Amino acid sequence: MTIDSGWTKIIKEGAPHAFTPILGLRPHTVFIDGQINLMKADYIKTWQMFFEYQFLRKVENAFTHGAKVVVLGFDNYKHVPTAKSMTQLQRCRHVPSMTFSDDEQLPPILPENWAGAMRNRAFKTKVAAFIAQNLRIKFKNESMRTLVIDFSDEVEVLGAPFELPPVLHPSSKAKRGECDIKAFAYLSNHGPLLVESTDGDFIPLALLQMHKEMAHSGKMPLVILHRMYTVTDGEKMAKKRNSEGKSVRRYEYVNMEHVMDWLSQELTFIPSPVHAFAALVAATGCDFCMNLPNIGPKTLWKARHMLASLDLRQPHDLMLAVVRIYHNQYKQKVPPMLIKPSPQACLQDIVAQYQNLALGIQRNTRIAQRTRESVWTPQRMHAHVGNTLWTLQYWENLDQFLDPLQPGFGYRQEKGRVSFDGVCL
After folding, report:
1. Is the pTM for the entire model greater than 0.85?
2. pLDDT, tens digit, for every residue of 305-325?
């Protein structure tokens, strides 16, 4: 999963102290996003190199942080939400999936078209199983360190004993599909959780899970993200080069407690700043939501004062927020309109207001044709609000997520495929 990278830039510009080049603490648990590591460089030509470079080295390096437990997670496709199928289909249009069935064995050499291979779920599942088997061999005599392989319904513990939390027991029947949501089963009072992943959705996920745990136990768990370096708009990044003159990827640590403190100060006028921020992030596009047309993170963040007293967990308030922001964006080019305050307008009225606004934009020839053509219909925008709210509850509820095909979430199923409401197939 991923989000618009503009949000990370906004966070770093607002809370630069949360981003550091060194870890500066000892995590109790390190969670490694195995799905990210399935993507390899071209110079990796053999299965042995693939295992050692992409996984064994990452696991060993995680232990050097002083962690007692290292978790390697993979997707369990049996439980991945059906609402993600649209994203997968879109990606396969750009990179066709390699043909590979469940009853086939991995080839003796790595496929040349690795990107196409990674579009095939059956192939990725076999690769993950290959990695797990090799790690079992490496850790069979380990007695001091604990490696957890979180792949299938039954989580494996290798090396030193580790008591799994209840949600990880097969009897819990938790729908733990995507690797991303698996990480937060390992939040504990033992110490910080370090997440090794470049996926941006770990930002709203971490914020919501820390907030949830704080409300439940009164204690704030600490989550650190290790991700690729974020270059802000006001920063000119000096290109680091290695001895061969090639560019070197830079990484940094993000202390999510500092990010949460900053958000609380920036959004004091909004009920539940963490939920509000996560809703804005989802609204600008992720694996379960389309991108808002002509409006991105910068525009939303600059207009945050217009969201005062709105609870963006509610469809009424989120739709009202969308209408206010779009009206503010085009108020110089559309007829004046009254945006009613939250308590006085029903949801249907707000959708009707959006319809008038959309027509005003579409009919104004002073606005670029491409912009006018990209404006969503009221049905699509209303469905997008539902998509956003489903994503918000998924990021919060994790394995207890609601069925995206329930009424009000803006998805539909046709011919066995899930798609967005208000979009012509």
Report:
1. yes
2. 999 999 999 999 999 999 999
Residue 218 neighbours by CB distance under 10 Å: 7
Give the whole-angstrom CA distance, residue 354 versus residue 14.
Answer: 31
Q: At what angle do helices 273-283 and 315-330 cross, to 10 degrees?
A: 60
The two counts, helices (H) then strands (E), for the chain are 16, 10
Structure token pair of residue 333:
């080019």
Token pair 């910080």 in the structure block, residue: 192
Which segment of 278-287, 339-348, 403-412 scores lowest on mean pLDDT?
339-348
Query: Over the Cα atoms of the chain, what is R_g?
Result: 23
The angle formed by the CA atoms of residues 90, 91 and 96, to the nearest 5 degrees, is 110
Handedness of CA 402, 406, 411, 414 (dihedral sign): positive
Rounded average pLDDT over 354-364? 94
- CA dist 140 and 98 (Å) reads 34
The per-residue pLDDT for 173 is 83
* Nearest to 106, CA basis, from 125, 119, 88: 125
How far apart CA 63 and CA 60 sit, in angstroms, is: 5
